[in-house]
Amino acid sequence: MHDHDDTISNPSDNRLFSDIVNARATRRAFLAGSAGVAALSFFGSNSAVATPGRPATDNGNNGQGRGADKGDIGFTSIPLDGGPMPTIAPEYAMSVILPWREKIDGSGESYPYDLTSEQQEKAIGLGHDGMWLFDDDILCLNLEYGTNFHMFGRDELQSLEEVRKVQAAHGVAVVALERTGDTFRMKRDKRNRRIHVNTPVEFSGPVAGTHYLNVAVDNDNPKGTVNNCSMGHTPWGTYLTCEENFHQYFGATAEGWEPSERQKRVGLTSGQGWDWHKFDKRFDLSKNANEEHRFGWVVEIDPQKPDQKPVKRTALGRFKHEGATVVEGQGNRVVVYSGDDERNEYIYKFVSAGNWKSMFARGIHPLDEGVLYVAQFNEDGTGKWLELSRNNPKLRKWSMETILVHARMAADEVGATKMDRPEWITVGQNEEVFCTLTNNTKPYAEVRPGNPSGINSDGHIVKWVDSNKHTGTDFKWDFFAIAADVHDENGQMFGSPDGIWADGKGRVFVETDGAQPGDANDQLLVANQATAEFKRLMTGVKGGEVTGITVADNQRVMFANIQHPGNGDPEVSNFPEAFTGADGAVPRDATIVIVRKNGGIVGS
Ligand code: FEO
Ligand code: CA
Ligand code: CA
Fold first, then answer.
1. For residue 183, what are the β-bridge partners?
2. Closest ligand to 229 CA?
3. Own/partner long-range contacts of 46-53 (Cβ < 8 Å, ≥24 apart)
4. Distance 547 CA to ligand 2 centre (A)
5. 549 to each of 67, 114, 185, 323, 482, how far by Cα in Å?
6. Which residues pair with 293 in a beta bridge?
7. 244 close to ligand 1 (CB < 6 Angstrom)
8. Are residues 499 and 546 in contact, defined by beta-carbon separation less than 8 angstroms?
9. Distance from the CA of 143 to the center of ligand 2, in angstroms?
10. Is residue 3 helix, strand or coil?
11. What Cα–Cα distance (Å) separates residue 87 from each residue in 80, 82, 143, 155?
12. pLDDT of residue 25
């Protein structure tokens, strides 16, 4: 399980999403004269954003290239599964690529389990997560984390070399792929590279060059990205990797050290079990105070330029970024949506100052100048994007760099809505934006005494439409799906939605990470965007999560990841040995390649 599942760092009195939901449900029940939210239409009949209904049944077009893809979901939904290997719908086939320890030289070989840190820097790491395939050619793959247990069979680290090896397993892999029929492999390519915790990086935007980034250890050589969870990709062909739970790698060796209020607000403590700070003083909060400010950012990587230093785009704010979903908005401004995945944290968006092409023409990077907002949800189904800048009267005394470095505290100040762990965000048809709220596993009453609200242990998916094609400050929102209410003939279909991707043809792919009905494995589902009917396409591996999604060949191929199979324990799963025939005592995170056997669109 993720360490952050039970964390709360938000001490503000801002409204909880659950209060708004309860108030909204009551109001709607009154208006409709019936109980419950689910029975009611999403945006009301007079709304410009209502979408036409479409059944989630097979209309005979399995997307084989004859005629337009109509977004049908025709495959046979499969049962939940709890086994050590993935299962997939009968119309589909799958294979495995890019397992942990595969060399990035394209030789197809893997280093052994007891590889060195230097070898790990030249191999696929652990924690396969968000990813994107550019031009059916080069894949950027996030390597969120690999536990000490997974890498060493024990929780404690014993040397700097061991720390370096774990650090090398984190980060991003950029690898070129080649295809033969329905199989893929990493090819030899000069663009193949690994970015990890000790890779040189640079900062750009309002926080670059400020005192917040001055550190005691190796000040002139900023390094690394860590806990790279979800992602985004830009219209100019770059990859955005997102730093989520950066706080857990820091600790303090000094006796009696205590975190400041600002440090507590991002969850920093004297140590959370990773042990890096014990051997690498860069991660020792008592010796290297500002290093933590160098993490929690969105980081831009150019997959075509292996010598490019990853750039931390500070205008997008510092928090536990799950992802950074980019869309072109009104006037070709770029809009970046981002969830902060922790219980009771917020949803943000960034809008570039101008048309992204004109900004480049003027020598300004579109992710360096713009406005950062945070979301406030209202129970009448409306919402507001609250500006996080000195233009907001509540932040008039703040500097811009303070607002960005301490984005959570700025968002507290302006009255953002505390959400149930915002995870991935995607944009579907009709400018609808979807966000998974994975769960909130403890009663809210514990968070705020006297609050009678219940728990949201199964999660839900909200959707909204912003005014002015993603760039405005008003939105209308509703639920897309409440996990506890989504059933098939066998009962509840899923819990803990996390990864999400809309294909723009009417399908919404949902991946899970957390408790599933019947204690089953995490899974990949496909929903109809208009009707929210779900089918189950794939089930994952015991002890692992299903995450990351990208496509090739106009969606005739899909890639999804199995992260932490067996939680690193070979007695739970030795995935993917049965697929690759490789050495496999300890399970290896890897990427699944999914194709429809008839060559059709994946999801159809
Ligand atoms: Fe890295 Fe919120 O999952
Ligand atoms: Ca996630
Ligand atoms: Ca998650």
1. 180
2. 1
3. 47/476, 49/430, 49/431, 49/432, 49/465, 49/476, 51/429, 51/430, 51/432, 51/529, 51/530, 52/530, 53/530, 53/531
4. 7
5. 25, 30, 17, 13, 22
6. none
7. yes
8. yes
9. 12
10. helix
11. 9, 10, 23, 31
12. 67
Long-range contacts of 488-491 (CB under 8 A, 24+ apart): 488/77, 488/534, 488/536, 490/79, 490/80, 491/517, 491/518
Closest CA to 134 of 45, 234, 41, 222: 234
Give the DSSP H or E segment for 592.
Answer: strand 590-596
Indicate whether residue 144 lines ligand 1 (CB < 6 A): yes
> Could you give the dihedral angle defined by the CA atoms of residues 207, 231, 200 and 151, in that order, rounded to the nearest 10 degrees?
130
- Which amino acid appears at position 304 of this protein? Q
Cβ atoms of 260 and 295 within 8 Å: the answer is: no
Q: Which candidate, 62, 86, 65, 94, places its Cα nearest to that of 76? A: 62
pLDDT-above-90 percentage for the chain: 83
The Cα 22–Cα 31 span in angstroms is: 14
**DSSP sequence for 12-36:** --PPBHHHHHHHHHHHHHHHHTSS-
Looking from the CA of residue 129, the nearest atom of ligand 1 is: 1
Instruction: Quote the ligand 2 centre to 556 CA distance (angstroms).
Output: 25
**Residue 295, C-beta contacts closer than 8 angstroms, at least 6 positions apart:** 224, 225, 226, 243, 246, 318
Distance from Cα 131 to the centre of ligand 2, integer Å: 12
The number of residues in the chain equals 604
SS3 75: coil
Which pair of tokens denotes residue 123?
């191999």
Q: Which amino acid is it at 197? A: V
Name the maximum alpha-carbon separation found in the chain: 69
Distance 475 CA to ligand 1 centre (A): 25
Q: Which atom of ligand 1 is nearest to the CA of 144?
A: 1
Write the CA distances from 466 to 49, 316, 398, integer angstroms: 10, 19, 27
Token pair 């279909």: residue: 493
Q: Which atom of ligand 1 is nearest to the CA of 244?
A: 1
Residues of the chain short of pLDDT 50, as ranges, are: 1-4, 33-63, 444-453
pTM of the model: 0.93
DSSP SS3 for 530: coil
Question: Which atom belonging to ligand 1 lies closest to the Cα atom of 322?
Answer: 2
Closest CA to 18 of 545, 448, 580, 590: 448
Ligand 1 within 6 A of 423 CB? yes
Residue type at 345 in one-letter notation = E
Note the pLDDT tens digit of each residue in 476-514: 999 999 998 899 999 999 999 999 999 999 999 999 999
CATH for 3-596 (2.60.40.3710, 3.30.300.160, 2.120.10.30, 2.40.50.140): 2.120.10.30
Closest residue by CA, ligand 1 atom 1: 229
pLDDT at res. 23: 76
Nearest ligand 1 atom to alpha carbon 421: 2
How many other CB atoms are found less than 10 A from the CB of residue 112? 8
| Rounded Cα distance, 329 and 337, in Å | 12
Tokens coding 354: 């101008």
**DSSP conformation letters of 142-188:** EE----HHHHHSSS---SHHHHHHHHHHSEEEEEEEEEETTEEEE--
pLDDT recorded at residue 194 = 98
